[in-house]
Structures are given as structure tokens and as C-alpha cells.
Specification:
This protein is mainly α. Helices cover about 65% and strands about 10% of the residues. The protein has seven helices and three strands. Strand 2 and strand 3 form a beta hairpin. Helix 3 crosses helix 4. The protein starts with 9 loop residues before the first helix and ends in an 8-residue tail after the last helix.
Length: about 150
């Protein structure tokens, strides 16, 4: 621990841990591509412009990203039932499996660290899982169009 670490907030520690998990991920897709897949998985099929806005990229950039996801079989364009001229982007079963694999790989980093903790500390950490789940729910409520975690 560095001097001054006692002053770190819970948010700073969680952010540092999240960054650790992200650094350990496979590099086959960009973070924006993973975030886009996660957004589609969480919110359902979305129009290209809506995805671009939620991910903070231009519509042409999102179109190229979706084309890449389509080539990989992770997403597909579908006709918009509300507007025949528009298309929506949906996640495929392969896209869901890819996200699950990325999550499992990221989770394994933390599982290794939790296993290194003394049993009492590990149990204490497991006892706050309902709180962390609630925080994820609140994130969807408070940041619906912002970037999400995978």
C-alpha cells in the first residue's frame, strides 16, 4: 500500500479493481464493441443512432462497429417493427456467449484474489454481494444511456 491509500474511497478502490479486470480481458474486441454488445444485451435491440449516442461515438463509427460484430456473428441488424425504413441492432446467441466468456475470464481474476484472502475477509466480501447487485440495478436506473460495464 502506498502512503495516503487510507484516504481512498470505495469508488476509487472499485474503479482500480475494475481496471484490473479489464486489463486481463481478451483483445479480440475493443472496449467500445464489448460495451455495445453489453448495452444491446441489457436493453434489447436498439437503433444504430441510439447505440452511437449511448456509446459516445459517431453514427458512422457505430455502423462500422456493428458491421464488425455482424461479421463475427455476435450481432445482427433487424428491421425495426415501428419504422420499416429503420433497422435495429440485436445481439445473437453467439454474442451472448462471447459476453459470458469475457465476464467469466474477468471474474476469474477476482476469484483468484478472493481465494487469497483469509476466510473471514472472503466471507465478509461475499456478504456484500446483494449490495453490489443493487448497485448494478441503480446504475441502469441512473445511467440508462451511458456506457455500461460488460
Amino acid at each position: 500500500m502506498c502512503m495516503g491509500d487510507e484516504q481512498q474511497s470505495i469508488g476509487e478502490i472499485l474503479f482500480a479493481l475494475g481496471t484490473l479486470g479489464i486489463r486481463q480481458r481478451q483483445r479480440d474486441l475493443s472496449l467500445t464493441a464489448l460495451s455495445t454488445l453489453s448495452t444491446i444485451e441489457r436493453t434489447g435491440a436498439r437503433r444504430l443512432g441510439d447505440l452511437a449516442a449511448s456509446e459516445g461515438v459517431t453514427q458512422p463509427s457505430m455502423s462500422a462497429l456493428v458491421s464488425q460484430l455482424e461479421r463475427l456473428g455476435l450481432a445482427e441488424r433487424q428491421a425495426d417493427p415501428q419504422d420499416g425504413r429503420a433497422v435495429r441492432v440485436a445481439i445473437t446467441p453467439a454474442g451472448r456467449e462471447h459476453l459470458n466468456a469475457v465476464r467469466r475470464a474477468g471474474a476469474s481474476v477476482f476469484d483468484v484474489l478472493v481465494d487469497k484472502l483469509p476466510p473471514r475477509q472472503a466471507a465478509s466480501l461475499r456478504s456484500v454481494l446483494p449490495t453490489f447487485r443493487r448497485m448494478l440495478e441503480l446504475a441502469d436506473d441512473d445511467f440508462p444511456s451511458g456506457r455500461s460495464a460488460t
